[in-house]
Amino acid sequence: MMKSIIIESDKKEDRIRHNADQETMEKNDKEQAKLRLMRTFVQRHDPSSKEVDDLMLRRFLRARDLDVEKGSNMFLKYLKWRRSFIPNGSISPSEIPNEIAQNKMFLQGFDKKGFAVYVLDKLSEKIPAEQEKFVVIADIQGWGYANSDLRAYIGALSILQDYYPERLGKLLILHAPYIFMTVWKMVYPFIDNNTKKKIIFVEDKKLKSTILEEIDESQIPEIYGGQLPLIPIHET
Predict the structure, then answer these.
(1) Is 119 in contact with 109 (CB distance < 8 Å)?
(2) What CDD domains does the entry give (predicted)?
């Protein structure tokens, strides 16, 4: 009797796995069909989009829940912004000397607009094509009201959400002082719901264990108990 029950259980598990695989295939086929429609749409409106790979288009499509029209309009807006804001194609270190000189970026975080683009482009270059997303550790120990440039924060958030969709995996905020929360309450409404889900305030007593949930110990900076030395982003 026990043997027959186990066999039946195995059959049920096989059916569950088969159904799950079938659903995944159907979902992928649906996404690919919408991706083809999106490519046709954006190329009709902006021929330069022919140079863009499917991975980038797919991020914009997913950012709008596979709505072809919304994803296409979002991507076309990105192309227009890129040409006007970054006419040379990239942000040079010579354009942001003050931020570079402070050595405050170690492949994570951003503040002002030009620096935000510089950092996000650098991160995107480093990420393998099949991985796509990055984890950000934002250590704001010592933050004070002198740092509370709301327009800069909202501008950086807008760049991340509107022009680099589906890139952020998690944002881990460390050592947040109490006064930071006052400004955070004002910035919070400008963050879209998908991004809000990715933001984690890390308790000091759970710092390393929380980081380990997202990052392998070999890739955690030494200052947080890992093995990786910090290298300023402009030196990578």
Answers:
(1) yes
(2) SEC14
pLDDT in tens, 7-48: 555 655 666 665 666 677 777 889 999 999 999 999 999 998
Residue 120 in contact with residue 160, Cβ under 8 Å?
A: yes
Counting Cα atoms < 13 Å in the Cβ hemisphere of 201 gives: 8
Q: Please list, in sequence order, all residues whose beta carbon lies within 8 angstroms of the beta carbon of residue 74, skipping any fewer than 6 positions away.
A: 60, 63, 64, 162, 165
Global confidence as pTM: 0.64
E strands present in the chain: 134-139, 168-174, 199-201
Length of the chain: 236
DSSP assignment of 46-75 equals -GGGGGS-HHHHHHHHHHTTT-HHHHHHHH
Structure tokens given for 20: 């799950």
